[in-house]
């Protein structure tokens, strides 16, 4: 689902997409969580909270606490210096633009190609530690379907306002991170998965996952049925999205008070 590319794209891109899909779910068996992974329409509803919250960036944020040594693994930094300030959305996602791209923002339902370095820290006092890098795997491209519910929600939100050709650091809070099995991108190497799992096991509210992302391309999927674009949905479906968002907020408040 989400890796069928026909017509304007070559078979090489299609094959790379299929290999990326197989590699991701080989390293972590995909388990159904409700109907999230079975129906595109339900996937849209599930990520509706992120889609709407991303429309309202509410504040500037300092880069203090958003930077730090990546740990002792080392990496060639393709992104450059982190800007001094960025934005925070109402969902809790934060981002800092290294470079704003010249292209257009991606649309939900499109196939997107990114390069990324993923790091994380369990608490605000710790240093970021790299657990995955697409640059270390062949050409470095990671191909996914934008908005289908199979990507880390905070990353999907952060990419949505990028422009093709741009570079961005996206800080994902725990509640928008690896919350259920099967979310990607997920490191294919066992040693890297252990690093991530160890950090996630200790992560508190001050910890986060950081994705340094290059948005290489975004293009229409000829096989897409059109369930991802909220402007094309009938009013009843949008009402269901808004209702689910309100129920989600109420559930979070109940958990927070317990």
Automatic annotation (TrEMBL):
Transmembrane segments: none annotated. It is an enzyme of class 5 (isomerase). The keyword Isomerase applies. Its EC number is 5.2.1.8. GO terms for molecular function: peptidyl-prolyl cis-trans isomerase activity. Residues 1-20 are annotated as: Disordered. PROSITE patterns: FKBP_PPIASE. InterPro entries: PPIase_dom_sf, PPIase_FKBP_dom. It comes from the Eukaryota. It catalyses: [protein]-peptidylproline (omega=180) = [protein]-peptidylproline (omega=0). Residues 109-219 form the PPIase FKBP-type domain. Keywords: Isomerase, Rotamase. The keyword rRNA-binding does not apply. This is peptidylprolyl isomerase.
